[in-house]
Design goal:
One of its GO terms (molecular function) is transmembrane transporter activity. It is found in: Cell membrane. Helix 3 packs across helix 16 and helix 5 (88-125) packs across helix 14. The model is unreliable at 1-6 (pLDDT under 50). 59% of the residues are buried. The chain is an all-alpha fold and 461 residues long. It has helices at 14-25, 27-41, 47-68, 78-86, 88-125, 131-147, 150-176, 191-194, 199-208, 227-256, 261-267, 272-280, 283-318, 336-355, 360-393, 401-424, 426-430, 442-455. It has one domain (11-455): Amino acid/polyamine transporter I, CATH 1.20.1740.
Length: 461
Amino acid sequence: MSSSSLAPKRSLGAFDIFFLVVAAAAPLAAIVGNGALGVLLGNGVGMPGSYLVAGLVLILFAVGFVRMSPHVQHGGAFYAYVRHGLGRYAGGAAAFVAIIVYVMMVVGSAAGFGFFASLFFAENLGLDISWKIWAAVSLVIVALIGYREITMGARLLAVMLILEVLILVVLAMTVFSPGSAATVTLTSFAPSNIFSGSFGIGLMFAFVSFLGFESAAIYSEEAKGGHRTVSRALIAAVIFIAVFYAIAMWSIVLAFGDDKVVAAAAENPGTLVFRAFAQYTHPAFTVAAELLMATSALAATIALHNAASRYLFALGREGMLPKTLSKLHPQLQSPHVASISVTVATSVLVTVFALCDADPLMTVLSSTFGLAALGIILLQAATSLSMVAFTWKSRSKSDAWAGNLLIAILATIGLAVAAVLVIVNYSTLTGSLGVLDYAPWLVPLAAVVGIFVASRGKLAA
């Protein structure tokens, strides 16, 4: 049997996938960036509640995914579910959209690491090293880890993720402690505050903070228990992310006060969380938080690179992309060719941004993740719609079909609303970027290419 026909080694447990998924969502980066912007531009003190609303929609999505997963015996993540429920043309479109958004997220995460690493070393060690150098370093690290067997990356991500979660736990515990200067209230979870101000923008930033959780589905062929392991990891990850984000953001709101947090965010949303650390914890924790902000971006880059590689591997195996992408390393059993391809593509894109002297945060990160937010949420909505179609078509085979159908419909509506929010508020999400404002057109363009490939008979129905 040739290496191209082999399946990856089943080496991932539920905890491994959980860490890969949550690391891709980058909890610390999500709170520092999206959470603070949600407070400033969205619903202010109600931002913690927005995380719970977004989490509820995504939990409904995850439940529908779990109930459909036994019927989709295929690696390659959500595009396989879209194909199963909506047909091969929709599946082809979803596949190519997924490739675009995951590659873009790797680029954005590498730039984000470059920015925060440069900032940390300049402020704390007096080393003025350009973000471009740090971004290159991150791509080298990611390339080496991505080339090898995936459990190595999962273990490293577990350590990095635990540290960034713990630093936020320290802040929350300090704010909530009896001797704290903060006044604990439930104002952030009152419906009148959650749905106040620009609720749509707050909800958009909440949804964007979950980017990466859907990558659990990509690892079904490398999971020890197959879809069952993936399902456990997916639901656990969504619940953890929703609850953790809500509590962490709540503690930051309380740190400044319900009536002052918006003004504090207006001073500089990028430093809101670090100012909370400076106010409530020992200075060493502020330095640690700044360092972990960089490692959070690195962890996300590793996880997203792994996800992109597995998309290319699965599509190469099906003939939608060159077959060589489906080759496995003879010793490591890793999709090394696909990993190298992602490294080359992302390195070229980062180099282009660097040569244009683009701002790593306001241009590279914002534009790539703005595009990714749109693409991923549309992909999730299409997957949820395929669950609706699948449940309806198989209603005679299940006594619980009505409940399953309702869950899928509610998830589809919620994700469709999220997609509309991203489209309507795209400039708020990405800033004014000139030519990059046209980046969203890459999503329909990728979909058209995918439909064309599927029409050529390269993707089975």
